[in-house]
Amino acid sequence: MSEECSGQLTLSSSSPGALLVDLETPEEIQARSPGRPVRSSKQYLRQVIAEYEALDRELPCIRKFPTPPAAQPLCLCMETSPEEDLTHLEVLEALEAELPGAMESGRVSSIRFENMNVICGTAGRRDRWLITVTDFQTRSRLLRSGIRLRGNAHPLVRHDELLLADYRLHLRRSLVRRRMLEALGAEPTDQD
């Protein structure tokens, strides 16, 4: 009283609580999913969870992005420790020392502070000061020279480079999270 169909053996299929036995060979499973090596689901789940935990230990505070960040080629960034507790006026004065009349001449259009600990919901991240300039010549000059605050040299970097690095980490974590949810049999959400 058994039927064989599509790789499953059903014993007395009309009875409640029928027993299903998978007759697929590892080769058939491999042919159905060629990208993944054959391994036990427990082993795969352990590996995915270990990957996620390792990423969490390595990078506990990753910025999340609902969409890819837009390019801001004229935006520079200075990272500082939260203990420095700088003010906008101090950053402006440091810019003026490097570029006299930076704001009045219109070469610097804005100075903005980003508290990365608030953005990421964590502690231990460096603060970011975003300095938007109006031309590539000013950008190049500030990238070469940096600025001096409280007697310390602070290099400036392209904000796009930092955002792209943050976005790559976000994508990496999302991929690991999605794989973990799939391994657990849960459906990934839109936030993944």
Automatic annotation (TrEMBL):
InterPro entries found in the cross-reference section: DUF4732
Domain of life: Eukaryota
Annotated organism of origin: Leptonychotes weddellii
Protein name as it appears in the record: Uncharacterized protein
